[in-house]
Amino acid sequence: MLGASILVIADDLTGAADSAAALTSSGHHCVVSLDGLITRRDTPPDTIVVIDTESRDMRAADAFATTAAAITRHSPTELFIKIDSTLRGNIRATVEAALSTLSALTREPDRILICPAFPQLGRTVVNGRVHVHGVPLDGADLCELFDGLRTEGRVEIPDVQTDHDLAIAVGSALGPALGNTLWVGSAGLARHVGASIAANDAARRDGETIAAARRPCSRVVVIAGSQHPSTLEQIAALDPSTNIAALHPLDPQFSARAEQAARGADGLVLTGGATARIVLDLLEVRSLDVRGEVEPGIAWSTGRGRSGDITVVTKAGGFGDTLALQRAADFLSRS
């Protein structure tokens, strides 16, 4: 059984939130830190801290340094590196930073379990290659990506086509005789790792109370900056009465338009990790208490910014079916 001293490192905000939400499904209290300054000393007992490093679009050397600094600051006994389920970002550099830092902390893992699969959202791994809804991704497979990784631990890249396969992969890496594991994967893997961590009963009860007492938001706004085809289909399917700001990331007025759209809202649906981060930075939200999932891969959280309390749903651009954005907006507007 793992301990709740596990630290989660994510390279973008939607990934940080969806992995945290997966952990809450087992009764854990999770906080996403946007500025990296929150530590376990700043949170209630057994809180799992998730750090958004914003390193996905950095140069590899900068992603390495940013990741290493975050891990060093927290000095975790267990570590989960949340990676994109379609292998975007500085995945190799991030894992290398984790291994280097853990070695310096004399906590080098005995095994590195790498699995970006998220079967509930159509992401699977077969023979080291990621598939999305059955179609293999172009480019290097996981075995090529991590070939020659400098570690004394054993690198494991299991085939995963179902949620049951994920449970087996996690179970096979647990047990006192098996040593310490560095977890590398998506929210799908985080869900099963969370189920292996003993949840604090008080945190579980608090989470259930908050979910039950959630009040509908009076003004809900959808802010979409992702240009992923899935998001564009979801925007087109929104009810005409929905408050929607569909922005383009290359628009020089992006921040100004996003801030204007969010003004006066007490409920936000944010799609696209970069968009979500920009909006919450504009609102001066420094952390999110992740409360749960609207549905797999789509998290809901509460935070406090310069204008007061706000409830936020975050969604990766490529996640969800055609009506996912509508369901997220409905979730916030209804109790």
From TrEMBL:
Keywords: ATP-binding, Carbohydrate metabolism, Kinase, Nucleotide-binding, Transferase. The lineage of its organism: unclassified sequences, metagenomes, ecological metagenomes. This is Unannotated protein. Belongs to the four-carbon acid sugar kinase family. One of its GO terms (molecular function) is ATP binding. It holds the Pfam family SBD_N. It comes from freshwater metagenome. Residues 261-324 form the Four-carbon acid sugar kinase nucleotide binding domain. Residues 6-138 form the Four-carbon acid sugar kinase N-terminal domain.
